Amino acid sequence: MLTRLQWLKAVPRPNSVLHSQIVRRNFKSNNNKANGIRGVVNPKLEVATQGIDRMPHINTDRQYKYSEGKIYNGFQCERIEYIPDFELTSCTLRHLGTGTEFWYIDRKDTNNVFSINFRTTPFDSTGMPHILEHLSLCGSKNFPVRDPFFKMLNRSVATFMNALTGPDYTLYPFSTMNEVDFRNLQKIYLDAVFRPNLAYLDFLQEGWRLEHTDLQNRDSELIIKGVVYNEMKGAFSENSQVFIQNLLNNMLPSHTYGFCSGGNPLEIPKLSHKDLVEFHDKYYHPSNARIFCYGSFDLEKTLKFVDEEYLSHHERIDNSYSRIPPQERWKQPRNVHIPSRLDRMGASFDRQNQIAIGLLMSDITDIQESFELNVLSEVMVRGPNSAFYKNLIEPNFSGGYNQTTGFSADCKDTYFVVGLQDLKVEDFKKFNELFEQTVQTTIKEGFEPQHIKSVLHNLELSLKHQSPHFGNALLFNSTSLWNHEGDVVANLRVSEMIATLRQRLKENKNYLQEKVEKYFSSNNTHRLTLTMSPDEMYEENFKQAEAEMLKQKISALDSKKLDEIYQNGLKLEASQKSIVNTDVLPCLSLTDVKEPPKLPQITMETVQNVPTQLCKVPTNEITYLKCLFNITGLTREEIMLVPLFCNVINDMGTNSRDFREFDKLVLSKTAGIDFKLNFVENVKDAKTYRLGLMMTTHALDKNVSDMFCLSEELLLNFKLEDTDRLQMLIENYISNISVGITSSGHLYAMLSAAGLVTDAGQLKSLLSGLDHIGFMKKYVQETSTGDIRDRLKSIGSKVFSKNNMRAAINSSAAYQSTALEHYTRFVNSLPSHEEMKTDIDINLLQPGLQHYLMNIPVNYCSKTFFAVPYLHEDHPVLRVLAKLISAKYLLPVVREQNGAYGAGAKIGSDGIFSFFSYRDPHSIKTLRAFDNTYEWLQAENEKLDQQTLFESKLGVLQQLDSPTAPGNIGIDNFLYGVSHEMFVKYRSRVLSVTVDELRSVIDKYFKEEPKHFGKVILGPANDKLDNEKSGLKWNVIS
Ligand SMILES: [Zn+2]
């Protein structure tokens, strides 16, 4: 699903080409989901090369600490500009010796960012840059320990730590609010990229290797193992990822984009360690590096360190070897068809097809053009007023837009894609015809000014909206442009680009139509039509190709090589099991983290009996509203339909306005009005839970009155009469919920496993987990759209009342009283109904084992059991223990030794303790590792020292102290009733946990097999799933 145009997004979006290539190393941030069209990136070529006429932009503040032309610690400052849109000062510096670019963004923000990136352009699909990215973080000259990156995760309070491989760059970013931490991580990162060990054994572990299934037995079978090898098998088990990857490779085939930088599993075993070392020498040279630094910490300290320790040891080289030429334009459009695996969770076989048309557009460095094309693409595809939506989505012959739809500015050439998922092969032709028709009609008839206005308003609003990860977002949004030597500074002047576009629209009524004619019509011959259909033999073909590759590898081995493999297997195992001395790694101390986050300014008011939380916070002229309606009194059937209700209620119009008009109005005044199901267990005893339906919206202060009027109109006058439209929305909903399962497979596995522990967990899985997909498909098959409509109507009429409501408003101190006036009028207008009951009891279930059969080559495993709720005194201790188990047991065993991409343990506020694995070649072995936690903890008893304990606490603090967006401050109090005092108490309890307390919870919760537990596997068929210690049988769900 496309979301609204936003200038900055905290994480690379998964539905872009970028993401298919960006392979995240740090698994822990993997559940950060961002979607939406990425905004605005890019400068005019001539501007970039000639140097922009930047007179009006120079920071005129004479007091500013740096000046252009001056030299600071070996770096010359080349350009300083103040960017009012984001209240930041940009300083571009260049290292005198190596020519390394250093971009510093000076901004009053505590969440500081540092990153290094290299332009990496592979010419094969062995995953060279990706494996190098893993290996760089496996130990370096100053930090010769195994995997310092993962070790640092627990010695830091980083708000983000990662390494990413893009299609043409490799990026090493981190962020933190603590300056000691910032300096520590800087040391690790710089040493990792400029002086990595790149040890052969690490190559075998992270890249690929041949290994005996039984390490001790030379005669046992040989198989291929490796972290990246499995990671990429997992990445391509998602059909949408296969589609995205193929789209990029086929749209831009002539240079590096013709290959898969992440690595094709069948190509990865062609990579040699020697090639990798050479690749590092060539591409990780400082002259080919770009360093980014953002925030409020002392810049000169950083410059001095970077210069003295690293850059001054290198000579400057010409980095043009890594430059990427523009794609040569085709004279004729091309068609490509690819097969996909049959997705068991997806649509029926005959509908499981995808089609997309991709059109090559501008050069990424032409920023105004890219900006306008991005806006144009938004106007063309998003929402019920766009031409493609009207012509491709509304006829309802598909499951809606596919993941590739939108504008992409991630490569040297930008491109636009529109595509559909879940349609029949017979309808490919229809898609093509409708595409042509849409383009022709748009050229002829143009656009509705009000529609363009609402798109631009939304963009302006997103500039004001503050993300707590602004620095990271700015980095991610600038990296591609910077990598192609575009003007990243001019690209931040979004208001100016909007103004330029408005002026052009004013001067030329046909301005956008001309762009459509140039880029979308048959005038643009660089057009790719990509189609994809399921092949029942897909998985089998892959397995055969893999077996064939293995056979060839083995037949080429002589006895010397065979002996080497055997020895290496033993060596690697010994090295993985050896004790690592991490003393060389820096670590924070208790004094660095003592201070809890500041008390938010929250007050509680009752407005006509509606409990209302008011929060004063610097919001940059935006007011945020959350209304939470209690839905606990709905019937079970109605509750089951609430997720669907949330999805369609804001998309059907109201009694006074049809859906097109309403959408236009909402987007020209607010950021949208969204609904979400809210599920909250009682944090005190976890014996009851509550269900809510939450409406969220925000608007510029000047539009707050409209925001309340529109919310009121929707809540009181929602309209669901149009069953054709409703049916289309339902079908798109079902297609969308089954996309992206494997990229979050661990979350689905944990959700399902928790559903085997309590009835509340079971309901949660039915409302948002894998079971929801099955339920909805069946329900829709068996129920007429008219009946569904009636049930949805009844939900709305029962729920939207002031007696069922609680609300939270976050605004600036100055605006709060005005916001409250508008809000009071809004509450006044809501009807009064009978109050609903508030709590439902939670019951524990008998243990269960569930295997969701999926047609994929990797597994996601989870084991859960019921422990204690959030406010129980053992909860913080268990939370610290979960971190310890993750870092000291599951990562070394399940990841390093057994080859899963990720693994961990956690405890939720609902009291459920969960283990999980991610993209895992094993299942039984992993579940056994989960079961053996107690034995491991006993064996390692002596190693439970103060340092290990402190590192585990830091892991918890990373979560507790992570920065919150202004619109979400106070949300724990609002949703869960966790006040700041409770939070501070919990936090200090985490810091005070002792080794003895850890030992006591280990005995209390892990010694005996828990009474209430669940185990879940998502993965391929497995006939060896027996011998369960508990004697339970696996329930297989296909
Ligand atoms: Zn990776």
What does this structure look like?
It comes from Drosophila albomicans (Fruit fly). InterPro entries: Metalloenz_LuxS/M16, Peptidase_M16_C, Peptidase_M16C_assoc, PreP_C. One of its GO terms (cellular component) is mitochondrial matrix. The chain is of the alpha+beta class and 1038 residues long. It folds into 4 domains: 283 residues, 2-Layer Sandwich (Cytochrome Bc1 Complex, Chain A, domain 1); 183 residues, Cytochrome Bc1 Complex, Chain A, domain 1 (2-Layer Sandwich), CATH 3.30.830.10; 238 residues, Cytochrome Bc1 Complex, Chain A, domain 1 (2-Layer Sandwich), CATH 3.30.830; 189 residues, Metalloenzyme, LuxS/M16 peptidase-like (Cytochrome Bc1 Complex, Chain A, domain 1). 41% of the residues lie in helices and 18% in strands. It is built from 36 helices and 29 strands. The strands form 5 sheets. Strands 1, 2, 3, 4, 5, 6, 7, 8 and 11 form a 9-stranded mixed beta sheet that branches. α13 runs antiparallel to α17 and α30 crosses α35. The longest helix is centred in the last third of the chain and has 23 residues. The protein starts with 16 loop residues before the first helix and ends with a strand. Zinc ion binds next to α3 and α7.
SSE inventory with pairings:
Blueprint: H1 17-21, H2 45-50, E1 71-72, E2 75-83, E3 88-95, E4 101-106, E5 112-119, H3 128-136, H4 148-153, E6 160-161, E7 164-165, E8 169-176, H5 179-194, H6 200-206, E9 209-212, E10 222-225, H7 227-235, H8 239-251, H9 273-283, E11 289-295, H10 299-309, E12 334-340, E13 353-363, H11 367-381, H12 387-393, E14 406-408, E15 413-423, H13 428-445, H14 449-464, H15 470-483, H16 494-507, H17 511-519, E16 527-534, H18 538-555, H19 559-577, H20 590-593, E17 601-607, E18 610-616, E19 622-630, H21 636-648, H22 659-669, E20 674-681, E21 688-700, H23 704-717, H24 723-737, H25 745-754, H26 759-768, H27 770-782, H28 785-799, E22 805-811, H29 816-829, E23 840-841, E24 848-853, E25 860-866, H30 875-897, E26 902-907, E27 912-918, H31 924-931, H32 933-939, H33 946-960, H34 971-976, H35 980-992, H36 995-1006, E28 1013-1019, E29 1034-1037
Parallel strand pairs: 4-11, 12-16, 18-22, 24-28, 24-29
Antiparallel strand pairs: 1-2, 2-3, 3-4, 5-8, 5-11, 6-8, 7-8, 9-10, 13-15, 13-16, 14-15, 17-18, 19-21, 19-22, 20-21, 21-23, 25-27, 25-28, 26-27
Helix pairs in contact: 3-9, 6-19, 12-13, 13-17, 14-22, 21-28, 23-29, 25-26, 26-27, 30-33, 30-35, 30-36
Zinc ion is lined by residues 23, 25, 130, 134, 228, 231.
